[in-house]
Design a protein that fits this description.
single chain; twelve-stranded mixed beta sheet; about 35% helix; Domain 2, N(10)-formyltetrahydrofolate synthetase; three-stranded antiparallel beta sheet; alpha/beta; Rossmann fold; globular; Formyltetrahydrofolate synthetase, domain 3
């Protein structure tokens, strides 16, 4: 019987964190890092400032085909590729998002890689880690408390309680908190009003945290958060409540990047973790830039498929940080591509080259989309034991025929040894330096035109449908000086369209815009299409049902 992820992680021979830092030439000094136990460290921002003149390494973005219940293994592949690069003599760091407690106890059960391509210590990373998410939750809810307190003590800013747009957050899936009434209980408790909770990873604080270039930038962005409006519809910002100072104090240690290690004792930086729908779904800019100064190759990932993750990584994160990927790796599984070809999940173990032939259009669409950014592409096939030789050969031939490098990867079962071919491919691409990087749209074009560009170029939609209210809101954002902001589309991750049942590579569909939101601190416009949950619920049988402490005092059930 195969070992579980947590069993593999528990058997890992971890090295003291100083040995990991030694491998990337980080000195053992109190002013450089703070140890968080034996195997985790936080790099101090003062040291990061000293690295700014160092040459950057190569940036590799790992993304994926459109997700299916069959799984793609993007994080696992990211870890495996970084191990593979280290195995062939290249200094590599993997940069990942921090797992959220909500999914860990809900559907996923953990998010630190899998098999023999994991980051460790797995239990700490998946649970409280270094407390970053708790700090973000506290900073967010401090602002919520300041808003209601200001109203209680006379409402000098004339906040319209019907137009408060700042909810509360917690890092757990709890559908019962999506919409609530706050301040009940009489005069002593304030003015009753409708409120609600989002999950912490959907907080604008999380998005700001991951886009800020330093502590001062973090404070400025927090101050620019729109918390609500007056009766005359004039915006009220967090800085009007003098909230940015104390909120930044709560985040001053969290903003320091976390260094851990892979199972193969290679460095990993795990920091931040915004939603890939309502936000941009990438680890922090500070973490990525730190890794680029400390290694030759940085492997980072973006949430969901390339239509959401890679598009936002480039159009939002890269635009705001001057980062530029040198290569994009698209992760695919034969299982998932067969699902895009019409096969049900319970039939995936059966060989079906015809279904693969139909489903491979999804991979091809993502490849072509990434090329629109002027970036070279490689495909990583995350190998499963039930993949047949005919299926593997078909997929390898397909990519070769369209001129795309492809590697069969077995990192789940053999770690970095199983990604050496992919690692060599990535190195060859980077050394050719064929990137002609460009954004999908310019800052100066109108907001609605930006939405249309994403819809047509990335989703292959025929048109964008938005009522007069939505179009008026966008015009209002432009009149208030936000016309230059990028677009963050929130839609289902399971299809290029807004209909999760449309698999493969649908065309001619319509993108209906239900709502637009201004993230004035994070500096992007959220465009909500379809039903998007910013506070998920737990499934009928949550992962929490299997998570417990065993007789040895060890955690069981994380996977």
């Amino acid at each position: 019987m195969a070992k579980t992820d947590i069993e593999i992680a528990r058997e890992a021979k971890m090295k003291p964190i100083q040995e990991i830092l030694d491998s990337i030439n980080v000195p053992d000094k109190a002013e450089v890092y703070s140890p968080m136990g034996r195997y985790i460290a936080k790099i101090k921002t003062e040291y990061l400032e000293k690295l700014k003149d160092k040459k950057d390494g190569k940036l590799i973005l790992v993304t994926a085909i459109t997700p299916t219940p069959a799984g793609e293994g993007k994080t696992t592949t990211s870890v495996g590729l970084s191990d593979g690069l280290n195995n062939i003599g290249k200094k590599s760091i993997v940069c990942l998002r921090e797992p959220s407690l909500g999914p860990s106890f809900g559907m996923k059960g953990g998010a630190a890689g899998g098999g023999y391509a994991q980051v460790v210590p797995m239990e700490q990373i998946n649970l409280h880690f270094t407390g970053d998410f708790h700090a973000i939750t506290s900073a967010h809810n401090l602002l919520s408390a300041l808003i209601d307190n200001h109203i209680y003590w006379g409402n000098k800013l004339n906040i319209d309680v019907r137009r408060i747009v700042w909810k509360r957050v917690m890092d757990m899936n709890d559908r019962s908190l999506r919409s609530i009434v706050a301040n009940l209980g009489g005069i002593a408790n304030g003015y009753p009003r409708q409120d609600g909770f989002d999950i912490t990873v959907a907080s604008e604080i999380m998005a700001i945290f991951c886009l800020a270039k330093d502590l001062k930038d973090l404070e400025n962005r927090i101050g620019n958060i729109t918390i609500g409006y007056t009766r005359d519809k004039n915006p009220i910002f967090a800085k009007d409540l003098h909230a940015q100072g104390p909120m930044t104090v709560l985040l001053k240690d969290a903003i320091r990047p976390n260094v851990t290690q892979t199972l193969e004792n290679n460095p990993a930086i795990i920091h931040g973790g915004p939603f890939a729908n309502i936000a941009h779904g990438c680890n922090s800019v500070i973490a990525t830039k730190t890794a680029l100064k400390l290694s030759d190759y940085v492997i980072t990932e973006a949430g969901f498929g390339a239509d959401l993750g890679a598009e936002k990584f480039i159009n939002i994160k890269c635009r705001k940080s001057n980062l530029k990927p040198d290569c994009v790796v698209i992760v695919a599984t034969i299982r998932a591509l067969k699902m895009h070809g019409g096969v049900s999940k319970d039939e995936l173990t059966n060989e079906n080259v015809e279904a693969l032939r139909k489903g491979v259009v999804n991979l091809e669409r993502h490849i072509n989309n990434v090329k629109k950014f002027g970036l070279p592409v490689a495909v990583a096939v995350n190998h499963f034991v039930n993949d047949s030789e005919k299926e593997v050969n078909f997929l390898m031939d397909f990519c070769k025929n369209i001129g795309v490098d492809i590697s069969l990867c077995t990192h789940w079962s053999s770690g970095g040894e199983g990604t050496k071919d992919l690692a060599n491919t990535v190195v060859n691409i980077c050394e050719k330096n064929e990137s002609t990087f460009k954004f999908l749209y310019e800052d100066k074009i109108p907001l609605f035109k930006k939405i249309e560009t994403i819809a047509r170029e990335i989703y292959h939609a025929s048109e964008v449908v938005a009522d007069t209210k939505i179009r008026t809101q966008l015009k209002d954002f432009e009149s208030k000086g936000y016309s230059h902001l990028p677009i963050c589309v929130a839609k289902t991750q399971y299809s290029f369209s807004t209909d999760p049942s449309l698999k493969g590579a649908p065309t001619g569909h319509v993108l209906p815009v239900r709502e637009v939101k201004l993230s004035s601190g994070a500096e992007f416009i959220v465009v909500i299409c379809g039903e998007i949950m910013t506070m998920p619920g737990l499934p009928r049988v949550p992962a929490a049902d299997s998570i417990k402490i065993n007789e040895k005092g060890e955690t069981e059930g994380l996977f």
